[in-house]
Amino acid sequence: MLPVIATTRAELEGARAGIGTGPLVLVPTMGALHAGHRSLFRMAREMAGTVAVSIFVNPLQFGPGEDLDRYPRTFTDDVEVCAAEGVDLIFAPSHEVMYPRDPEVR
What we know:
The protein is an alpha/beta fold. It has helices at residues 9-18, 35-47, 75-84, 95-98; strands at residues 4-6, 24-29, 50-55, 89-91. A four-stranded parallel β-sheet has the order 1-4-3-2, sandwiched between helices.
């Protein structure tokens, strides 16, 4: 079964309400999921009844001149990995959702 996919904060709130109120484990990622992520998803499932995964390529994790634009974005494949591992919820926000105004980095 495919996980619920939320792309906005409102969708995330609605999805969270729809999958129960018990403990939830969040596994934050930048996508391009691999065996290491799968292992984290399984460990998360052992810890709680609900597993959520965020998929967001965070530009703040890249320095000037680094390869942000070349970072792999494999969302369709990532959804398949999450489904195979029984992930309940994927939060895949856009840059505008995560940073509605320019972030201040000090």
